[in-house]
Write a structure and sequence with these properties.
single chain; about 240 residues; alpha/beta; Rossmann fold; 3-stranded antiparallel β-sheet; 9 helices; about 15% strand; iron; 4Fe-4S; metal-binding; 4 iron, 4 sulfur cluster binding; NADH_UbQ_OxRdtase-like_20kDa
Length: about 240
């Protein structure tokens, strides 16, 4: 029986994806990535997409912009556009090392996620404590799936750790309500310096933009929830493991 198991396993082959050395996994048609905006059309439009956005992510001044940090990627703005000038592509590169980098003009340019200090210190090994701070569970699920066989996060030297004292940074998921502030702060304090904070999901990114957010953020990964590929790509570019 033992040899039968080995035989079956050998026939199965390697189940871990080849990305980033090979192509990324195929994304479903419903996936909404970086927005694509035809500004020449938007300049003469009254902007029904602005009113259609449930999270206030779409704004129109000199140009139409979408705040990816607030965006739910629900496509309501796309459906509201009478001229088809706004759509969402399949580009998964949404992570940004600055909050300002999440303001998209829809020109196809991905935000920069690279952090030279993080890459210099933790480019080989990076341990993270994940803190669920009032999230709905969706971002937690897409973060946890990176530890499965298909994604194999540890092959990049990135590991989730139980104790913050053994970590180099933390992932925060959720809007950090009042009852979770102490947990977030104490976890942050327990991580040795130098340390980095990653905000995953629209709830966390939006909360981190408000005055009084309890910890500084070094990497923003938007989405509701972000696809596992978006989370992985953000961390790899942040640490310089994937060139931008």
């Amino acid at each position: 029986m033992f040899f039968d198991i080995l035989s079956v396993r050998a026939k199965q082959g390697n189940k871990t994806m080849t990305y980033p050395d090979g192509p990324p996994p195929t994304l479903p048609d419903r996936f909404a990535g970086l927005p694509v905006i035809d500004q020449s059309i938007c300049s003469t439009c009254p902007g029904p997409c602005v009113d259609s956005c449930p999270s206030g992510a779409v704004e129109k001044a000199d140009n139409l912009t979408i705040d990816l940090g607030k965006c739910l990627f629900c496509r309501e703005c796309q459906r509201a556009c009478p001229k088809g000038a706004l759509s969402f592509g399949q580009d998964h590169r949404l992570g940004s090392s600055t909050r300002e980098g999440l303001i998209s003009l829809g020109d196809g340019a991905a935000p920069s996620a690279y952090n030279d200090r993080a890459a210099d210190l933790y480019g080989k090994v990076f341990s993270i404590r994940v803190v669920s701070a009032g999230g709905c569970g969706a971002c937690e699920a897409d973060t946890n799936v990176l530890n499965t066989l298909a994604w194999d996060l540890s092959r990049f030297g990135i590991n989730y750790a139980a104790s913050p004292r053994h970590c180099d940074g933390m992932i925060i998921i959720g809007p950090v309500p009042t009852n979770m502030v102490e947990a977030v702060v104490e976890t942050y304090r327990a991580i040795p310096e130098p340390k980095f904070v990653i905000a995953v999901g629209s709830c966390t990114v939006t909360a981190s933009s408000k005055e009084g957010f309890p910890v500084p953020v070094d990497l923003y990964i938007p989405g509701c929830p972000p696809h596992p590929l978006t989370i992985l790509d953000g961390m790899l570019r942040f640490l310089g493991k994937v060139k931008e």
